[in-house]
Specification:
The structure is a homodimer.
Chain A (H helix, E strand, L loop, with lengths): L3 H9 L1 H18 L8 H13 L1 E2 L1 H8 L3 H13 L3 E5 L7 E5 L1 H14 L1 H8 L3 H17 L3
Antiparallel strand pairs in A: 1-3, 2-3
Helix pairs in contact in A: 3-6, 4-5
Chain A binds a DNA duplex (23 and 23 nucleotides) through helix 2 and helix 5.
GO molecular function, one term (chains A, B): DNA binding
InterPro entries (chains A, B): HTH-type_Bedaq_tolerance, HTH_MarR-typ, Tscrpt_reg_MarR-type_CS, WH-like_DNA-bd_sf, WH_DNA-bd_sf
Organism (chains A, B): Allosaccharopolyspora coralli
Chain lengths: ~150, ~150
DNA sequence: TATTGTTATACTCTATAACTATA
DNA sequence: TATAGTTATAGAGTATAACAATA
């Protein structure tokens, strides 16, 4: 007999199961970093920039949910690789304007696909219903994370 | 008109959306670390130990999906805090046997709940159907991550 | 004074390579 | 020789505190 207690127990454990699941999946994703590629964090910032066109370092930090000093380092790394540039803000000289270079635009699609090959393979092993569950879960998690 | 292309497009983007979602949620979870608490990684190892009772460092590393040197450090940190102990293996002196101390058992429930307060609050804001989606997603992600 | 961003510093998490002890 | 584990070292990711430049 499927009791109410089973449901309650399963619900109670959701926090812990979700925590373990996302931490482990993130470990696997970070491990899929080819030697010459940008890191997962750098890639995420590039994707954010592609979406917004241009952004100040502070805006990027807010979009990614990290502190400004963390974003400073990410931008510096991407600048070293020639994937983003900075321009002066027209009226506020405290701010910088960051945007993807041509090289950055050219690289991002390839990087995303290369990086996600492992995850693509895993997702391909699922059935349609399972993929639909993950699709909805991604929406819900994004909302919870305040992005 | 809801075309087939929309569905295909949404499916194609699942990899990227899922990656972003789990990376950001993991960031938030790691940020919820009180000063005197064990870290998220240490907590995960403790939960693994609670489940298996005892385990060798190598078994723990495999359960958590990390390399042995990484687990060595996690165990050392927990030993320093008095939350786990090591015993000699009865027949193979290369191996160690790790288990939770009384203090470890006493602490783990509190730590888990303290750590997951933020996530609990977020989950409480969802409706039943959304929680059910996340519950299924956690199962699927665990399976994909090979745990 | 307040805001934007950077620099300095430190800690967690993880890995690979090289080593020790035991099988 | 092979296996279990540790030590040494390094790099990614992130934070807080202190600072500089500009508003």
């Amino acid at each position: 007999m499927k009791s109410e207690t089973d449901v309650v127990e399963r619900e109670r454990a959701l926090t812990g199961r979700l925590r373990v699941a996302v931490v482990r999946l993130t470990r696997r994703l970070r491990a899929q970093t080819p030697d010459d590629a940008v890191t997962l964090t750098q890639l995420s910032a590039m994707a954010s920039l592609r979406k917004s066109g241009t952004a100040s370092p502070g805006e990027l930090a807010a979009q990614e949910g990290v502190r400004p000093p963390s974003m400073t380092r990410v931008i510096a790394a991407l600048e070293d690789k020639g994937l983003v540039t900075r321009h002066a803000h027209p009226t506020d000289r405290r701010q910088a304007i960051v945007e993807l270079t041509e090289a950055g635009h050219a690289r991002i699609e390839d990087e995303v696909h290369a990086r996600e090959r492992w995850l693509d393979l895993r997702l391909a092993e699922l059935d349609d219903e399972e993929r639909a569950v993950l699709s909805r879960a991604a929406e819900i998690i994004d909302r919870m994370s305040g992005s």
